[in-house]
Amino acid sequence: MALEVRGFVWVSSPPNQAFDLGRNAWYEGKSKSKQCKPHKRSVCGSNSKTYRNHCELHRDACLTGLKVQVDHDGHCEETKTDKAVAASPIVCYLANRNELRSRVIQWLQNEVVPDGWFAKGSNFSDILLKYFKDYDNGDSQLDSTEFLKFLQHNETAINITSYADEENNRLLRSLCVDALIELSDENTDWKLSFDEFLNCFKPGFNPPERKCALEDETYEDGAETQVECNRCVCACGNWVCTA
Fold first, then answer.
1. Are 67 and 24 in contact (CB under 8 A)?
2. Is the pTM here over 0.70, yes or no?
3. If you average pLDDT over residues 184-197, what whole number do you get?
4. Does residue 237 belong to any structural domain of this protein?
5. Structural domain containing residue 146
6. CB–CB of 12/2 below 8 Å?
7. What's the structural domain count of the chain?
8. Three-class SS state of 94
């Protein structure tokens, strides 16, 4: 026989089947349950878990063998622990990346020396090549560690402070280094040759604004989504999620 309880279909084979329609519905033998109907009328269970509707609550109670009642209609309130788990990750947004890049360009341009009557000056490319050689370990490429040391040469110029905590700001700077490397890393080896390094900071170069993709849809920088207990943020074309 079949019983329908608030959109949930229970199918029983033997006639001696027992049901507690409110909470601890259980069944024996080959009894099986169909899926709940998809209508949405959220309820908060006594286990502090939000269910899509009454049927989903009863189904969960039945399958887990736990006693669960409807506490109130609507979503359960987030606890402090839930909020901590769902906190947004620290990320380098396009605005952070572009700000850091602009600061570095301005710093380098301030060091340009025009040619004089009796001495050759230093143009933008010369200045950048000097720094590249200073921080390259000899393999003619800059990795993220070497790139970061280059930035730290002028702490004042590249001091981006989006967070109150200094440790978070240092992490932000490291993430923006990765974003800058990705910007001009043509062979995707996460290292920059001098030509790639130069392209990264060319004043006339307008960095592209990449979007994030998810299930055939695209999302703007700063968009957020929830994956299980993790919050994910779109930053510089990549989804960054809490661990």
1. yes
2. no
3. 94
4. no
5. 94-208
6. yes
7. 2
8. helix
